[in-house]
């Protein structure tokens, strides 16, 4: 319980920073400077007004200086990141692999929102994630002797990257190369956990994207030519794969009598 409480607090703090990342990275701006400020009047956000979720509630969603409305998305992103951290902590416990998956949870939230906003998965986030994942997963491989898992992670990376690359090559209009690069990162993490999570996480991304696409078409909210950001579905599918991929894969194999 103490671990989950700590992760909730950490998630709120990280979520506050992710709001900066989501806004600035697509615009090519620094996430360090200038300090957080009101986009309407330019006033710097005071320290007491920068407490995740709570400050937004106390300010009633408005800037202290100019009373301009502050989007409810800010506290929602903070709360979402906290939830992601807690469920990952509940799944993995106090393990050496947990920091690697917390990093995935954080960048996953940022990438999903950026893709929804601008239909792009920035290299500035995706490419460094390869290095970070390889380094952080090497720690449990070294400490706990989980080199077979590390090798499977590398295979998972190659399989998903190669599969998505083939899809993008065959149908460039249906998949961006940003999705291909993200697939390799997700393959690393899912492969680390096992073949079941890898298969489930990859399949669920396609399933979720397909279901949402059909619903939008049926509701005439989209056409066959509408470009839908696929990154959020990949990330949500991967999260489900991390949390329940082994069980889902086992249930499927049992259902088909394999």
UniProtKB/TrEMBL annotation:
Catalytic activity: Typically cleaves a -Gly-|-Phe- bond to release an N-terminal, basic peptide of 5-8 residues from type IV prepilin, and then N-methylates the new N-terminal amino group, the methyl donor being S-adenosyl-L-methionine
Pfam families, per database record: A24_N_bact, Peptidase_A24
EC number, as in UniProt: 2.1.1.-, 3.4.23.43
InterPro entries: Peptidase_A24A_bac, Prepilin_IV_endopep_pep, Prepilin_pept_A24_N, Prepilin_peptidase/N-MTase
Ranges of residues in domain Prepilin type IV endopeptidase peptidase: 104-214
Membrane-spanning intervals of the chain: 100-118, 124-143, 155-174, 194-218, 230-253
Top-level taxon: Bacteria
Residues covered by the Prepilin peptidase A24 N-terminal domain: 9-89
Keywords tagged on the record: Cell inner membrane, Cell membrane, Hydrolase, Membrane, Methyltransferase, Multifunctional enzyme, Protease, Transferase, Transmembrane, Transmembrane helix
Compartment annotation: Cell inner membrane; Cell membrane
Bilayer topology: Multi-pass membrane protein
Protein role: Plays an essential role in type IV pili and type II pseudopili formation by proteolytically removing the leader sequence from substrate proteins and subsequently monomethylating the alpha-amino group of the newly exposed N-terminal phenylalanine.
Family: Belongs to the peptidase A24 family.
Protein name, entry field: Prepilin leader peptidase/N-methyltransferase
Higher taxonomy: Bacteria, Bacillati, Actinomycetota, Actinomycetes, Motilibacterales
């Amino acid at each position: 319980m103490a671990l989950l409480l700590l992760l909730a607090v950490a998630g709120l703090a990280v979520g506050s920073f992710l709001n900066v990342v989501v806004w600035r990275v697509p615009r090519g701006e620094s996430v360090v400077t200038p300090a957080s400020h009101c986009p309407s009047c330019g006033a710097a956000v005071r320290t007491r007004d920068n407490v995740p979720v709570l400050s937004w509630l106390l300010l009633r969603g408005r800037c202290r200086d100019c009373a301009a409305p502050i989007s409810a998305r800010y506290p929602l992103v903070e709360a979402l990141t906290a939830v992601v951290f807690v469920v990952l902590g509940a799944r993995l416990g106090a393990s050496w692999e947990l920091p690697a998956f917390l990093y995935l949870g954080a960048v996953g939230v940022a990438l999903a929102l950026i893709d929804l906003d601008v239909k792009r998965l920035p290299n500035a986030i995706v490419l460094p994630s390869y290095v970070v994942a390889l380094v952080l997963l090497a720690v449990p491989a070294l400490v706990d002797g989980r080199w077979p898992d590390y090798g499977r992670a590398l295979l998972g990376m190659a399989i998903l990257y190669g599969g998505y690359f083939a899809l993008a090559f065959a149908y460039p209009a249906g998949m961006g190369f940003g999705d291909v690069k993200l697939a390799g990162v997700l393959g690393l993490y899912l492969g680390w956990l096992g073949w079941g999570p890898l298969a489930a996480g990859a399949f669920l991304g396609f399933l979720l994207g397909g279901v949402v696409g059909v619903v939008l078409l049926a509701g005439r909210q989209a056409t066959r030519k509408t470009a839908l950001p696929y990154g959020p579905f990949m990330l949500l599918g991967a999260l489900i794969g991390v949390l329940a991929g082994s069980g889902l894969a086992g249930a499927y194999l049992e259902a088909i009598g394999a």
